[in-house]
Input
Amino acid sequence: MTNSSSTPRRKPAAKKASGTQTIQRASLLVRLVASRSRTGMRLSEVVQHSKLERPTAHRILKCLVEEGFLMQAPDSHEYFLGPLIFELGLAASPQFNLSDICRESLERIAAKSGDTAFLSVRSGYDSVCIDRKEGAFPIKALTLEVGTRRPLGVGAGGLALLLRLPDDAVDEIIRANAKRLAAFHKLTVPVLQKTLQRSKKLGYALNDSHIISGATTMGLPIVNRYGHPFAALSMAAISSRMTPSRQVELAALLREEIDLIERAMQKRILA
Output
C-alpha cells in the first residue's frame, strides 16, 4: 500500500501568482481597448501594445468578451468595450459621482471666463474627459468631447495629472505612452518632458500646441486626501485670449474651484 504522506504536495503559491498575473493582464487589455473606445482595436494592435504573446492575448480577450467586459464586431473583428463596463459604471456612480460634485464649479468657470471648462479623470495611463461646460465667448475652443480618452501628458488635463506625481511614476507613464504620442501633432517624449517642466515652473499645466492649432489649454489637478492626483479641471480658449497675465488669473480661478471640490469630497468621505 502506498503511503499517502509520501505523495508530493502541490505548491499553491505558484497558482496564486499565476492567477494574479492573469487578472493584471486582463485589466491591461480592458484599458487598452478603452483607449480606442470609438474606433476599436484589432488583435494585432492589442498584441503590439500589451507585449503579450498572441495566443495569450487572444485567450484573455475571448474570456473578456464572454463575460461582457468587451465585445467584438463580427465584420471587422475589432474589440470594443462591452455592456458590463457600462453597467458597472452605473452601479458605482451613486456612491461617488464626480461629475455631480464638480458640475457647479465647471459652470462657474465657464461663466466667469467665457471659455470652455473640462473635467477629466485618470484611468491607468490615460485621462478621460467626463464633463465639459461652454462659456459665452462666441469663438469656442472645443478641444475635448465627453468620453474622449488620451494618453496622460496630452492636453492640459492629462498634463495636469502628471504635475503632482513623483518623477519615477511620471517616467513610467511617459515610457508606456511613448508610441502613442506621435498621433497628437507629432508630440515626442522630449517635447512632453520639456512641456511638463515648464508647467511645473508656472504652477499650472499649459499646452499651447499638439492638440488644435490656434488653441491654448491650461489645467490643474484635483487630489484626494492622500495628495494623489486623480482628476483635473482644465480650460481651453483661442490662443489670442490666453495671454500670460490672463493665464495667471485663470489659474487662480481654477485653484479656487478645486479647493471647493476637494473640501466637498472630504465632507462626503467623512459623512
User: Anything to note?
Assistant: The radius of gyration is 22 Å. Residues 1-8, 10-16 have pLDDT under 50 and may be disordered. Residues 35 and 91 are 22 Å apart (CA to CA). The domain at 93-270 is CATH 3.30.450.40 (Beta-Lactamase).
